[in-house]
Amino acid sequence: METSRSAVARGMVAAESKAQSHSVRGESKNPVRLDRRCVRSRRMIYRAMVDLVEERGIDGFTVSDLTERADLNRSTFYSHFKDKDDLIKSCEDDFLDELIEVESEIAKTTPEELALAVVGDRPLNALVELFDFLAQNSTMLHALISANGDIGFEHRLLDTVGQTIINKILNQQYKDNTTRLVEFYVAYYSSAALGLVRTWMEGGMKETPEQMSNLFVQLAFLEPGKPIKIEGEIDD
């Protein structure tokens, strides 16, 4: 799968504010320079973690492996994280925090906007932003949800997707249902949405965020027998 290292850096925007709140042993007369050094070190550690997860699996490397790959000393690592588990959780938390911010725009989608997307096969802007975010963070996301990644993170991701996206597009008559139907519905479509993203990444993300937004809506509201295609795709 073709990915970009800049995706990891972009995906760790939250790391910048966290790094500014972390202190490093010793003092600096230039706090701006210190903050930048913290941000740089943190990103290098994240990047090394992603590479090692892809290569060896989440249990296949140590803090020493991380610092060697990042070309940093162990004291720098421990100035940011308590241990390897703390690093992984911090990385996952940063990603989910950003994802929730992006998904909050989906929660603002009006029924009229959703209806236009369904009837007119038009990309939903909030979903376009979501797929753009996923594309820019694909390196890290792929590592975490791959076979070598963290199964616990996948469960947290499914829960986030289900609570924000699937519940939003759920028809009102189902939202008001007091049976376990809604629970099954959300679980079904959350897994389907994650499968859609995983297939997109494994295929090299050739489709644009606009195309993926359109495809997501078509699949979510697919009518039996209705022809479906990816927007802009040329028929054979």
Furnish the topology, listing elements before pairings.
Layout: H1 5-11, H2 13-21, H3 31-56, H4 63-70, H5 74-80, H6 84-106, H7 111-120, H8 125-136, H9 138-145, H10 151-169, H11 172-175, H12 181-202, H13 209-220
Helix pairs in contact: 2-3, 3-4, 3-9, 6-8, 6-10, 8-13, 10-12
Number of helices: 13
Helix content: over 70%
**Distance, first to last CA:** 25 Å
Instruction: Name the helix and strand elements from N-terminus to C-terminus, one letter apiece.
Output: HHHHHHHHHHHHH
Low-confidence stretches: 1-32
Shape label: elongated
Mean pLDDT: 79
Q: Report the β-strand fraction as a percent range.
A: under 5%
Task: Characterize the structure shown.
By secondary structure, this protein is an all-alpha fold. It has two domains: 5-85; 89-220. Helices cover 71% and strands 0% of the residues. It contains 13 helices and no strands. It has helices at 5-11, 13-21, 31-56, 63-70, 74-80, 84-106, 111-120, 125-136, 138-145, 151-169, 172-175, 181-202, 209-220. Helix 3 (31-56) crosses helix 4. It starts with a helix and ends in a 16-residue tail after the last helix.
